[in-house]
Here is the input.
Amino acid sequence: MQANDIISSGLLELYATGLTSKEETIQIEQWAKLHPEVAAELSAIEKGLESYAQAHAIQPAPSVKGKVLAQINTDKKTTIIPFNNGARSVAPFWKYAAAASVILFISSAIINVSLYNKVNETAKNLDQTQQSLASLQQSNEDMKGSNESMKQDMGVVQSKYSEPVVLNGIGVAPNAVAKIFWMKNTGEVYIDPSNLPDVPSDKQLQLWAIVDGKPVDAGMIVTANNGQKFKIQKMKSFGKVDAFAITIEKKGGSPAPTMDQMVVMGKPTL
Amino acid sequence: MELLKKYSEEELILSLQQRDQQAFSYLYDNYAPALNGVIYRMVEEKELAEDILQEAFIKIWDNFTHYDSSKGRLFTWMINLTRNLTIDTLRSKNYKKQQKISADENSVSNLSNNYSGAERFDTIGLRKNLENLKPEQKTIIDLAYFSGYTQEEIAKEIGIPLGTVKTRMRTAIIELRKML
Here is the structure.
């Protein structure tokens, strides 16, 4: 590239404002060494920006300078670098040392570029990690919810007042089982429908309590495929029950049980 | 009280390479306000800006052997170092880059300037000259120089194609140079 083309490209201005990529930066530094006109133009641009920054200067608190000077004075690591003004001849050893240092410098530049890429990579990974953390937090929230309802279920099962009543399969579903937890102190009736058969979507399972020889509606059992089936559900409360039974009824329930559609039945031990 | 020694840029660099603390003191006096101005516009908090300024000057002292005058002027090296340090600090503190720079009320030239004391630069004269810079020219320089924006961010902020940033910046700096 000709010096004039470099100057008019606008790249020197981007370089001076810190906007060039690593590759462009290296390229421009090479150009500046190759072409004195480019170096002069770059210097003029930098001077312009320097004045611009000086025009927008803000005086810091006077204490800052003291802190800076105190810190550089206590810094034991700083070493005096002897300055070579170039007048002396260079011994062969130093030539090799200089060559070695150039190689070192280049390899360090390569390492820097690769580290820079790694940093970018790491930043990306961090983003992904943060995203998956957010989704984990969401599922943790969900789990808290299901844990709460499981605790409730366990409370029903473990209560000293709960009397378990096993309803065994009869008639249309000989393998079905349902468990009732009947709270003796409050009369509340809970059912665990885990082992009840699935019913067509236009049908629903209905619980009946047989009181004084007559079936009384005890509520509809939710068996829809939304996970509800496996949760212990609260039904209607009863003080006195001879037996519990479940029948398959039309969706929403029936006023009286369809006797030939009975699934399970069981009696409390008392 | 000793007389303040004046340095040319070359003398200053030579003295700093020889770890001359008096030269460093001179460097601080002449450039700390300008660097502080840059940091302040990026962080918008006086104390934080001064903390970063302090850290920047320690870094300049510690890393002075890395400065290569063939790659550019001393101030360019210092401002790049300072800007990168500020960006790193803002990132580590989880600060969000504030999208505040615009052509009008938030323009840096309207921020109060309390530069005072012995100064090498005719700040007031410079500021007067810069008043002739067009707002869009100021904005593009400010976004790069005072906000540490990337080319992509500048293009997005001003609403111009990425390829136009280069030519727009060149025009702005050419105008800037005419005014000095």
